[in-house]
Amino acid sequence: MKIRLDLIESRLQILVEQWMIPVARGDFKSRLARQLVQALQEHLAASPEDHPASSQQYTIHLHPSLLASFEQRPNLLAELAIGLQTAAREAGLYLPTPPAIDLASDETLPPDGFYVQAVPPSGKTGSTAVLVLTPESTQQEIARKKAFLIVNGQELVYLTQAVINLGRRADNHLVIQDERVSRLHAQLRFSRGQFVLFDLNSTGGTTVNGQPVRQWSLQPGDVIALAGYPMIYGEEGSNSAGQGDTGRTSAMDTSAE
């Protein structure tokens, strides 16, 4: 299968151009798109042959002023992850889930400077390897969050992992036995201190608070529907999700990781 990397780059440029980052130079969109494509190439080169598009993780290192502009727009990284996944599919590369994209501050860069690094899969090391958060620190942050879903008004499911797949298929972390829900319908990904919901090109769609979404940074009390199947996002210490009214508590299946 031929992968049109130039097509991926052009699609990403269009997406980034819409952001209008105030401190970035005019060629910001082309530089970011080009470096993301280069990071994608590095990832593919380091991936196992039987899973060439699995476990994508990228870090964008930015000058603190540019980092502040990104942080003022909390959905940018989720949009970029979805955009990269969509552009790759259009170019002939199937990415089963959006990549994980993190930010890191680097004061040695010029005010509009940045560079992208790919995190090698399966713990491999190399010149491009970088992790903003270690798995241990990420897990500690998730534990402090004490986030949960109230599923179908009955089950209280705590979110204890950085990546959580939702759908009908038996190997999902949260299996939803409803024919309206796609086999791999959505994904929750913990990024920069919050859970972000991604719709994975499902058939029935995903809504939050009644609005169709492709990605959404979740807040306590958000009402999620996967093709109509309801759940509520909450965090302990917030009463907005009405967690006291739930029925049984469930643990997620961790075998899908």
Descriptors:
five-stranded mixed β-sheet; 5 helices; alpha+beta; 257 residues; 15 strands; seven-stranded mixed β-sheet; 26% helix
Strand content: 25-35%
Unreliable parts: 122-134
Work out the helix count. Answer: 5
Taken from the alpha-carbon principal axes, the silhouette is globular
Rg, Cα atoms, Å: 18 Å
Main β-sheet description: 7 strands, mixed
Mean pLDDT level: 78
Main structural class: alpha+beta
- List the secondary-structure elements in sequence, H or E: HHEHHEEHEEEEEEEEEEEE
Strand order of the largest sheet: 11-10-13-14-4-5-15
Give the total of beta strands: 15
Ends: how far apart?
A: 27 Å
User: What is the helix fraction of residues, given as a range?
Assistant: 25-40%
Write the layout of secondary structure elements.
Layout: H1 5-17, H2 28-46, E1 57-62, H3 64-71, H4 76-90, E2 100-105, E3 114-118, H5 135-145, E4 147-151, E5 155-158, E6 163-167, E7 174-175, E8 186-191, E9 194-199, E10 206-208, E11 211-212, E12 215-217, E13 223-226, E14 229-235, E15 249-250
Parallel strand pairs: 1-2, 5-15, 6-7
Antiparallel strand pairs: 1-3, 4-5, 4-14, 6-8, 8-9, 9-12, 10-11, 10-13, 13-14
Helix pairs in contact: 1-2, 1-4
